[in-house]
Design goal:
about 90 residues; mainly alpha; 3 helices; flat
Length: about 90
């Protein structure tokens, strides 16, 4: 026999055995019976309701007051264009 046939025959035989073993039905495992959990009537604890502090929204007051808007506005800066002038 040649070297290839010495290697090829066991390889094909192993592939055949593996493929045939995949066709067998799986064995069923028997689970032991489990006891049903006992539900006890325990009182449900009541949670205290925490009141959240009122959130003050000062945005509306600030943005609707015209004088406050003018006072807080950034001053308008005059931008000198670099494209004009002697060059």
């Amino acid at each position: 026999m040649t070297k290839i046939s010495k290697f090829l025959f066991p390889l094909l035989l192993a592939m055949l055995v593996i493929s045939i073993s995949g066709c067998t039905e799986p064995t069923a495992t028997v689970e032991p019976p489990t006891a049903e959990p006992v539900v006890e009537n325990t009182p449900i604890p009541t949670l205290a309701v925490l009141s959240e502090p009122e959130i003050q929204n000062n945005c509306l007051e600030c943005h609707t007051d015209k004088e406050r808007l003018i006072d807080n506005a950034k001053p308008i800066l005059e931008v000198v264009s670099e494209n004009e002038g002697a060059g």
